[in-house]
């Protein structure tokens, strides 16, 4: 994992570190896709039969996005992706809307879309609780850091 940020906190009277960053090996990518499948299938957001090897992925995962993960105890508990494409999925696949004038002035190369924002429960035992919003905020902060580096200014 290429670490972008880390947060140290005390969970259940144990010091823990949550690492946020970009997966940099196939094991992490596979674990990220499996987490997406697990959470989406538990919530009935997807048809389980449409995905191979219990991995949720689509055409935007290959060469059109950056992926972000959150890890604690060497386990991925959060994920998101930042899609960069000429036409983003929201406008291409989901909705028809007129672009706001301010957005229209921004080049398509400087736009991105966040998707697959997932945080799984983390309970190492009955006495531990990790608020999901902390993981979510760490992932979003990592997305903002990369977006600034890549000059992505709208979406």
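Q: What amino acid sequence fits the structure above?
A:
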């Amino acid at each position: 994992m290429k670490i972008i940020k880390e947060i140290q906190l005390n969970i259940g009277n144990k010091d823990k570190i949550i690492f946020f960053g970009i997966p940099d090996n196939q094991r992490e990518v596979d674990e990220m896709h499996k987490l997406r499948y697990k959470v989406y299938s538990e919530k009935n957001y997807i048809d389980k039969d449409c995905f191979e090897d219990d991995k949720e992925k689509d055409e935007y995962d290959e060469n059109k996005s950056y992926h972000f993960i959150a890890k604690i105890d060497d386990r991925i508990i959060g994920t998101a992706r930042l899609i960069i494409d000429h036409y983003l999925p929201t406008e291409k696949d989901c909705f028809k809307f007129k672009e706001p004038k301010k957005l229209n002035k921004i080049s398509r190369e400087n736009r991105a879309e966040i998707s697959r924002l997932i945080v799984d429960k983390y309970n190492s035992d009955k006495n531990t609780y990790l608020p999901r919003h902390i993981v979510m905020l760490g992932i979003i902060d990592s997305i903002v850091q990369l977006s600034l580096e890549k000059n992505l200014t709208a979406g």
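Q: And what stands out in the fold?
A: The longest helix spans residues 132-149.
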